Each structure stands twice: as C-alpha cells, then as structure tokens.
Amino acid sequence: MVKGRQYTEPADPGSAPGRVSIVIPMLDEARIIRDALHRLQPLRHAGHEVICVDGGSRDGTAKCCEGLADRVLSAPQGRALQMNAGAAQARGSILLFLHADTRLPSGAVQRILERLGSAPAAGWGFFAVRLDGVGPAFRVIERAMSLRSRLTGIGTGDQALFVTRTLFRRVGGFPQIPLMEDVALSRLLKRTAGRPIWISSPVTSSARYWKRHGVTRSVLRMWWLRAAFFLGADPARLHVRYYGRGSNAH
C-alpha cells in the first residue's frame, strides 16, 4: 500500500472532497458491462459513485446498467463527448475515467487518494497496464505501453486516467475530437500541472482489439496513428483509419 495522507482538496460547490466519480463511456457493451459494474459495487458502497454514459448503443447496454450505477446518461457518440458529459454530472472531487473492458487493481481508489494527498500539486495520473491476452507478445506490448507512458508522461484511456475535478475543468475537459482524446488531454494536463502521478499496480485491459486484428498489424497501426496525430493529422481521418468508415465503435 502506498503511504501518504488522503486527498482532501476543498472542492467547488456541489462536489464531495475525497469522493471519486468513476465515469464509464459505453457503446454496445451489453456483453460485458454488468460484470464490469459488479466489480465496482464495493466502491459504491464505500461512498464513491459510478456514472455510465451511453453513446447510442443498439444492444441494450444502458438497460444492463440499471441498479448498478449511480447515474446512467446518454450523450452523442464519441468517448470525449461521453466522458465530458459524465464529468459534468459528477459529484466527486476526483474523476476516474474507466473503459468498460478495463479492470481496476485491488485498492486502486485508495492508492489514488493517497498519491494525490502526497502530491496534490500534480492533480492527475494514470496506472500501468496489463493486457488479458495469453502469450509473450502481450507481455511485450503491455510493458512497452507502460514504459512509454511513464517516460513521456502521456497516458491512454486503457490506463484509467484520473484527475481532480478542479484541474479537469481548468483545462476544459477532453478535447472534442473523435480519436486520441486521451493523449490530447494528457498533453493539456502535463502542460498545465506538470508530470503525472504514476501508479505501478496495473489495471487489466482487454486485448480484444489485438486479437481481432492481429498483434503485429495492430501494433504497427497504433504506432502510425500516434505518430500521425503528433504530426498534426486530422483526428477525424485517423478515426476512419482506425475503425473504418461508418463504424460506430469506440
């Protein structure tokens, strides 16, 4: 367990200090969302909140959340739009953005509170990542992802990015772009508040994209997309290259 005092930043009116709001963007996740939310129930019982934001699912995802989330919202499709909508309704002083297919490690929220308490000026951070795929290729990918993000201070959505509500509002939330919104927010936060808090206990993220498209092809595509984004490519065009034209995928 990481040592340090818990985060107790005086929050703006309507926000509960020391309370974490977990915001989950969803799109056609009926197959996995109930299990994901069941894992978060102990945090709800401890006083934190879970906010699910549906982006127009066609498989009844929102209905699957009934009784398992504090709020179930609808928003225009797109992770940035959905997460901003969830953050706008959040009551906690800390926002934790979690993908539906990513699992938090044991004690994750306690670690966030303690690390923010020890380094309140930072105000944001993310976790190391582990993929749920079996085989050496996935071990290499997850280590490379964690090392890259730790060295650069730029996290991705798979790493359960967390940020104080005050800082999130100061930078204007997620840039409203269809892809790389997590990278764009990390850049804003790093520029505004400095390097992030790094939590070495990894979240476990789904390897389904790599399995579906092939490991080598997926890695090369992601490297190309990231390089193109940093060189100023249009995120809308990158979204089409990543998901395909007309796709409603996240």
Could you say how many structural domains there are in total?
1
* Multimer state: single chain
End-to-end span in angstroms? 34 Å
- What is the CATH architecture term? Alpha-Beta Complex
Order of strands side by side in the largest beta sheet?
3-2-1-4-7-6-8-5
Strand content: 15-25%
By DSSP (H or I, 4+ residues per run), the number of helices equals: 10
What's the rounded overall pLDDT mean?
87
The description of the largest β-sheet is:
8 strands, mixed
Topology-level CATH name: Spore Coat Polysaccharide Biosynthesis Protein SpsA, Chain A
What does the model show?
With 250 residues, the chain is α/β, with parallel strands linked by helices. Helices cover 42% and strands 20% of the residues. The chain is built from 10 helices and 8 strands. The protein has helices at residues 33-45, 61-64, 79-89, 108-118, 136-152, 165-170, 181-193, 208-213, 215-230, 235-243, and strands at 16-26, 49-54, 71-74, 92-97, 102-103, 124-131, 162-164, 197-205. α1 (33-45) links the parallel β1 (16-26) and β2 (49-54). α9 packs antiparallel against α10 (235-243).
Write a concise keyword list for the protein shown above.
globular; 8 strands; Spore Coat Polysaccharide Biosynthesis Protein SpsA, Chain A; alpha/beta; 250 residues; 8-stranded mixed sheet
